[in-house]
Design brief:
Blueprint: H1 2-23, H2 31-62, H3 66-101, H4 105-111
Helix pairs in contact: 1-2, 3-4
Length: 118
């Protein structure tokens, strides 16, 4: 991570030098605001570069290509959607069953040994 911080610092330093040079001749009231925005942009670019390197290092460590990682993520998201759909259907069934039996949903969960937190 020290290399990432060093890269970020160098990027911000370069952007700061260019910014300082450009602002020397700027007398407009927005000068300070532009300077802050330029500094923020330089910091964000450094952060993006560091995160990209960290991502690439993790992918290399896992022996995955970027496409494989995306596919794995997409599959995981699809499974989460299916899980949530099934869970919603189960909760609706417990609600209807509770209504038919004149009980609370919590009572139905307890009756079927299902944790209300699940």
């Amino acid at each position: 991570m020290d290399g990432d911080n060093e890269t970020r610092a160098k990027t911000a330093e370069k952007a700061g030098a260019v910014l300082d040079e450009a602002l020397v001749f700027d007398d407009s009231p927005e000068k300070e605001q532009r300077a802050e925005l330029a500094a923020t942009i330089a910091t964000l670019k450094g952060d993006l570069e560091a995160q990209t390197k960290a991502r690439d290092a993790l992918l290399a460590k896992c022996s995955l290509t970027m496409e494989q990682a995306r596919q794995l993520t997409d599959e995981h998201i699809d499974r989460l959607h299916r899980y949530n759909d099934i869970k919603d259907a189960g909760q609706m069934l417990f609600g209807k069953l509770a209504e038919l039996k004149g009980k609370t949903v919590k009572d139905i969960y307890n009756e079927y040994s299902v944790n209300i937190e699940d």
